[in-house]
Design brief:
Elements (H helix, E strand, L loop, with lengths): L5 E4 L2 E4 H15 L8 E5 L4 H13 L2 E4 L6 H11 L3 E4 L7
Parallel strand pairs: 3-4, 3-5
Antiparallel strand pairs: 1-2
Helix pairs in contact: 1-2
């Protein structure tokens, strides 16, 4: 039995299968830079891109570090340093204090 689901955020509707395809495509592009077990951090709001990024990390076999989007830039920097994160996937405006 196949389950078909959509992610609905506000007025936007995204089929989960589409988000998973995009995540798999991103993983293929990043696979030369990110090996399995590599820490990858997310600093994203609760939007469709968050699911896409999770799918990317899963496909890479990377270790995910989810940062609260309310963190201040100094807090983000501290966590990235302490965790040895090699890649940060973020909404750019969240990095500006």
């Amino acid at each position: 039995m196949q389950i078909v689901a959509d992610l609905i955020v506000g007025d936007a509707r995204s089929p989960l299968a589409y988000l998973e395809q995009r995540g798999a495509r991103a993983a293929r592009r990043l696979s030369a830079q990110v090996s399995p077990g590599t820490p990858v951090a997310l600093l994203l709001r609760n939007e469709a891109i968050f699911i896409e990024a999770l799918t990317t990390i899963r496909a890479l076999g990377a270790r995910r570090i989810v940062l609260p989007w309310t963190y201040l830039p100094a807090d983000v920097g501290r966590v990235l340093t302490e965790s040895g994160t090699r890649l940060l996937i973020a909404h750019a405006d969240l990095l500006q204090g």
